[in-house]
Specification:
67% helix; transmembrane helix; Alpha-Beta Plaits; mainly alpha; single chain; 298 residues; 11% strand; Alpha-lytic protease prodomain-like; disordered N terminus; 3-stranded mixed beta sheet; monoatomic cation transmembrane transporter activity
């Protein structure tokens, strides 16, 4: 089966699994390189990657839970687990950033050996791999309109940022020699600040989804256009779209001729619902309200 044919939830889970596998390899490489290369920035970078692994695992659990079918207690399904996972991921990012900054500040004025040159080559490879992962995972996140997958992508970008900051700090320390060892620690502090910035960029859309904020106007307009295209629908009076994880639920008020029978109005409502459900596989439910339309000419 081609990747583009995968169910959205399965695609999200497989993307997360790929990120976890790559991050496990990188955290081991960076931790060993940081230890033997005498670079605190690289050790801090490995710590941030370890936080990535934990948060990605939580995302995987959240996505798995969101796949559970609707039941009596959760008639709209369990999709809210997906943005909740995004919130947890962002909090992990903030916690990792605080830990990195605290330890770097504590280490700045402590005499220590400067980093080794080989750590620079390790970081070049890490930055390239993590930037590739960011672009791939973000592409999937945008395709699925998944806040959790986008949050996971930002994890990879934040990892690339910390690695880039570590690279700059180590480069300054290596070139400057004695007296410039602190550049390695300052790089870790700057990286921590950038991680916090990314974390707050993740939090807002996740909270918006949890609070049932209206999705983009483009989605609402597509729903309205689909409803208007159904025969005997005069106009769409109201359109509310609720996002539940990777799925959408629609609450639509349509206007039909006031002289139609109840049975005819019911048939039109079903036609609208069927049209919406077929137009987008992520629309899992639609409630259609029929309102009478009376022409002003009458």
């Amino acid at each position: 089966m081609k990747d583009i044919d995968l169910d959205p939830s399965i695609k999200a889970i497989r993307t997360t699994q790929l990120g976890i596998a790559v991050s496990i390899v990188l955290v081991v490489v960076k931790a060993l390189a940081g230890h033997f290369g005498h670079s605190y920035a690289l050790i801090a970078d490995a710590t941030e990657t370890a936080a990535d692994i934990v948060s990605s695992f939580l995302l995987w659990l959240g996505l798995r839970y969101s796949l559970k079918p609707a039941d009596a207690r959760h008639p709209y399904g369990h999709g809210k687990a997906e943005p909740l996972a995004a919130v947890v991921i962002s909090l992990f990012l903030i916690a990792a950033a605080v830990w990195i900054a605290y330890n770097a500040i504590s280490f700045i004025n402590t005499p220590h050996q400067g980093p080794e040159v080989f750590t620079l080559w390790i970081l070049i490879a890490v930055i390239a791999i993590k930037e590739f992962l960011y672009r791939y995972v973000m592409k999937v996140g945008k395709e699925l309109n998944s806040q959790a997958v986008k949050a996971d992508a930002f994890h990879h970008r934040s990892d690339a940022i910390t690695s880039a900051a570590a690279f700059i700090g180590i480069l300054i320390a290596v070139i400057g020699g004695s007296g410039y060892e602190g550049a390695d620690d300052w790089a870790a502090i700057i990286a921590a600040a950038l991680i916090v910035y990314n974390a707050f960029n993740i939090l807002k859309p996740a909270f918006d989804e949890i609070m049932d904020s209206a999705p983009s106007g483009e989605i609402v307009n597509r729903v309205k256009d689909s409803a208007r295209s159904v025969q005997d629908v005069v106009e769409v009076e109201k359109c509310y779209v609720r996002k539940m994880g990777l799925d959408y639920f629609i609450d639509l008020h349509i206007l039909v001729d006031a002289n139609l029978t109840v049975s005819a109005g019911h048939t039109i409502a079903h036609m609208v619902k069927d049209k919406l459900m077929k137009s987008n596989s992520q629309i899992k439910g639609a409630i259609i309200h029929v309102e009478p339309y009376v022409s002003n000419a009458n």
